[in-house]
Design a protein that fits this description.
Blueprint (H helix, E strand, L loop, with lengths): L15 H36 E5 L5 E5 L5 E3 L2 H9 L6 E4 L23 H6 L4 E5 L5 H9 L3 E5 L4 H14 L3 H22 L5 E9 L2 E3 L5 H8 L2 E3 L10 E2 L1 H7 L3 E6 L2 H12 L6 H4 L3 E5 L10 H12 L11
Parallel strand pairs: 3-4, 3-5, 5-6, 7-9, 7-11, 11-12
Antiparallel strand pairs: 1-2, 7-8, 8-10
Helix pairs in contact: 5-6, 6-11
C-alpha cells in the first residue's frame, strides 16, 4: 500500500506543497516497483536454483543439469535412439552424425561425430544439456561446454544390464521416467525370452566382428561380449585385454569359431565379400560348415533399445533350433 504524505508549507510559497507531495508520491511508486522487481528476480533465482540437479554421471563426474531440459543435444546415435524411444525426441535440437533412427532423427542439425563433436555448432544451438558417450577423446570439448554453464552427462554402458540402466537413467535425466521404464521393461522381456529359448543348448564358439579388413572383434568388457553369452555362445576373443582387438587369420584358425557373424550396414553386399575372404580357410569350423552370417550393425553395435532385437537375431543365427520357422517370435 502507498501512503501519501502532506507537508504544511508556508503561505508565501504557493503551489510548492502540491509539487513536493506529487514528487514524494512518485518516489514511493518507483521504490515499490524496484522492490517488486527485486522480489521477482529473487523468486526466479530461487526457482532456478531449486530446479537444478547435481548428479553423478556414469564416469563418476559431478554434473549440474536442469530438472526438465527443453533443449537436448545427443553426441551419439544410440543416445539419439534412446531419447526418441522414451518420448523426448521433440526436445532434441542437435545430434551426432549417423543418428539415423528413427527417421525423424535424420533431419536434426548435426553436431559432428561422437568422437569429434563440433563445439561451435553445439554452442550455437544453445542446449540445456549435452549427453555424450565415454568413447572418444572429448575431455577438451566437455570442459569448454561446462565452462559455459552447459551440463555434459556422460554414459558408458558395458553390458546389457548397463544398457537398460542407461535407458532408465536418461529417462530420469530428461524427466521422461514413465516412458523410459516402459522401454526398459520391454527390453528385459526380450532378453528373458532369448535366455529361455537357448537355455540348456550347447554353447557355440563365436567370432563377432565389425570389420573384415582388418579383422576387428570385441573382447571382455563390451556389451557385444555380453550379447554373445546371452545368445548362447562363447566369444573367442574373451579375455583379450584390448576391448576391440585386431585378429590375424592365423589367430582365428587357432581359436576355431563355429560361427562367424559380421555386423554390417550393407549385409547383402558384405556377405559376398565375407564368403570370398573366408572361403580360403576351410579349416575354420564356421567356414567348413557354411556358418558365416551378416547382421545389421545398427541393432548390434548400438547400446540402445533395439539391442534387444539384435540379441534376438544373433540368437537365431547361433541356435536356429530354438527358433522354429512358423513358431513366431
Amino acid at each position: 500500500m502507498l501512503y501519501e504524505f502532506d507537508f504544511k508549507l508556508a503561505p508565501t510559497l504557493p503551489g510548492r506543497g502540491f509539487i513536493l507531495k506529487r514528487r514524494y508520491k512518485l518516489q514511493l511508486i518507483t521504490m515499490a516497483i524496484v522492490a517488486v522487481q527485486i522480489a521477482t528476480f529473487a523468486t526466479f533465482a530461487n526457482v532456478a536454483i531449486a530446479e537444478e540437479r547435481h548428479l553423478i554421471d556414469q564416469m563418476g563426474r559431478k554434473v549440474v543439469v536442469p530438472k526438465n531440459p527443453k533443449r537436448i543435444i545427443s553426441l551419439a546415435p544410440n543416445i539419439t535412439e534412446i531419447l526418441f524411444a522414451i518420448g523426448a525426441g521433440d526436445r532434441v535440437v542437435g545430434a551426432s552424425e549417423f543418428s539415423n533412427y528413427p527417421n525423424a532423427a535424420r533431419s536434426l542439425p548435426k553436431v559432428g561425430t561422437y568422437i569429434k563433436p563440433n563445439l561451435e555448432r553445439i554452442i550455437e544451438l544453445s542446449p540445456d544439456i549435452v549427453i555424450a558417450t565415454a568413447d572418444g577423446e572429448k575431455e577438451k570439448e566437455v570442459k569448454k561446454l561446462q565452462s559455459l554453464g552447459i551440463g555434459v552427462y556422460v554414459i558408458n554402458p558395458t553390458d546389457f544390464s548397463g544398457i537398460i540402466a542407461t535407458v532408465r537413467e536418461i529417462g530420469t535425466l530428461v524427466s521422461a521416467d514413465v516412458k523410459a521404464e516402459e522401454v526398459a521393461r520391454g527390453m528385459e522381456k526380450k532378453i528373458n525370452e532369448v535366455k529361455e529359448r537357448v537355455s540348456g543348448l550347447k554353447v557355440v564358439k563365436v567370432l563377432l566382428t565389425f570389420s573384415m579388413e582388418p579383422i576387428i572383434t570385441m573382447s571382455t568388457g563390451t556389451f557385444q561380449d555380453d550379447m554373445i553369452r546371452i545368445a548362447g555362445g562363447t566369444n573367442i576373443a574373451a579375455g583379450v585385454k584390448v576391448r576391440y582387438p585386431r585378429f590375424s587369420v592365423e589367430e582365428i584358425i587357432v581359436r576355431a569359431p563355429e560361427v562367424i557373424v559380421v555386423t554390417s550396414m550393407s549385409p547383402g553386399d558384405d556377405l559376398k565379400k565375407a564368403n570370398k575372404l573366408w572361403s580360403r580357410f576351410g579349416t575354420i569350423p564356421a567356414v567348413r560348415s557354411g556358418r558365416i552370417y551378416m547382421i545389421n550393425s545398427d541393432i548390434v553395435d548400438r547400446p540402445a533399445p533395439r539391442i534387444g532385437d539384435g540379441l534376438y537375431e544373433l540368437a537365431k543365427l547361433l541356435h536356429p533350433e530354438a527358433f522354429p520357422k512358423g513358431g513366431g517370435e
